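Tokenised fold entry reproduced for everyone:
>
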Amino acid sequence: MDRLAAIEIFIRVVDTGSFSAAARHYDVGQPAVSKAIAQLEDWLGVKLLLRSTRALTPTEAGNSFYQRAKRAVEEGNEAVLAARGNASGLSGKLRVSAAVYFARLHIVPRLPEFLEQHANLELERKRHAEAAPTVQNSNSDSRSLTAARSKASGSKLPPHHSSSCSWSS
């Protein structure tokens, strides 16, 4: 397994305290997560985690490695974003037209993270009681909504976004 991937899996395991939660996050089986941690421990030559039936805790070496590895991965992600700049991000107006129930179930819960990833995107929403959901990119002039966020998600959006979105009929 790729060492960087194994390090990211290790970070997720420590963050969640669970091999299973890390496996769900990366959409892999729990044995793949266990194998990645074992390979990482073999490569480093130290035990990173203490495993028991009730708890999963980092060793002293594991905690030290976790702190540094997490900073390194975050710095790496920031370097990638800086290198890509605005050229690879989405920008402009995104028009979302969906039935109320579909929007509440599938769109609204995902909007905060999506809008955080694409800060230069302007969102326009339209409600339809029975319409099939459509998503299209539009440069036409129309009423716009700068952002939306589900209050239950608790995520923070950039300051130029509003924090309201209600899809009600």
About this structure: The first strand starts at residue 49 and ends at 51.
